[in-house]
């Protein structure tokens, strides 16, 4: 595994975890905050879903490997 591939294997799940935590904080703490367009609890829910999906995809790439495109060629 090259240095670039190892870095991607660490940062991709980390980004997902950060999104998940930020979404959870928004979801749990902004119930009484009212904004004109969307509620912050819904934004938190969306961030949690995106963060969870990012973690799943990153871990699947780590376990099953990248198919089609190589990290070294990007």
Features:
74 residues; mainly alpha; 2 helices; elongated
Report what the structure shows.
The protein is mainly alpha-helical and 74 residues long. Helices cover 70% and strands 0% of the residues. The protein is built from two helices and no strands. It has helices at residues 3-29, 40-64. Helix 1 packs antiparallel against helix 2 (40-64). The longest helix has 27 residues, at 3-29. The model has no long low-confidence stretch (mean pLDDT 86).
Total of helices: 2
Which parts are unreliable, with pLDDT below 50 for 5 consecutive residues or more?
none
Sheet/helix structural class: mainly alpha
- From N to C, what is the helix and strand string? HH
Structure summary, number of beta strands: 0
Mind telling me the C-alpha Rg? 16 Å
The dominant shape is: elongated
Distance between the termini: 15 Å
Mean pLDDT: 86
Strand content: under 5%
The largest pleated sheet is described as:
none
Helix fraction bin: over 70%
Helices and strands, with pairings:
Elements: H1 3-29, H2 40-64
Quick synopsis:
The chain contains 2 helices and no strands. With 74 residues, it is mainly alpha-helical.
């Amino acid at each position: 595994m090259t240095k670039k591939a190892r870095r991607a294997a660490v940062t991709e799940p980390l980004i997902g975890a950060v999104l998940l935590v930020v979404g959870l904080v928004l979801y749990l703490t902004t119930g009484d905050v009212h904004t004109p367009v969307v509620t912050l609890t819904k934004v938190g829910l969306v961030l949690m879903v995106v963060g969870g999906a990012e973690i799943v995809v990153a871990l699947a790439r780590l376990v099953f490997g990248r198919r089609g495109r190589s990290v070294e060629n990007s």
